[in-house]
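Aggregate trends can hide what the representation actually does to any particular protein. For completeness, the protein is quoted in full, as a sequence line and a line of structure tokens.
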Amino acid sequence: MNRQERLELLRDLIAENDYRTQSDLIDALAQHQINLTQSSISRDIKALNLSKTNGVYCLPVEEQLPEFPEFSGTVWHHLLTLYCVGENLIVLRVKPATAQLVGAALDALPLPGLAGTIAGDDTIFIALKDSLHQQALADQLREVAGIN
């Protein structure tokens, strides 16, 4: 296995599981018959631009956010405005009577850091577990909705 394939495997492992130490990462790779030293895993962590959040290795936020499925593109035209409030809340204003539809579409996406949504008639609160994902998700929602 070449280095690029190893980095892809490491990226997949981190996306699927929580690893707190370099030793944990080395052990996980060893289960895939890849033996690394601490200095090699350290270089791989740097190459993947990993960070630690709450003691767990994480991919860069931009890599964690999924692409919005093309088939649900029709839902996003209901978004009118978006506000980032505090460190972990996004407030969406949508067309009247569409908040439940848009909220359900958001809940169906595997959005990292999403704690939950509350949808009324024309407003949706998106609660995030931490502030790391707020701006990236807000930017992605603005892009798919075509709002500034």
User: Anything to note?
Assistant: The radius of gyration is 18 Å. The helical segments are 3-16, 22-30, 38-47, 61-64, 99-108, 134-145. The longest strand covers residues 79-85. The chain has two domains: 3-59, 70-145.
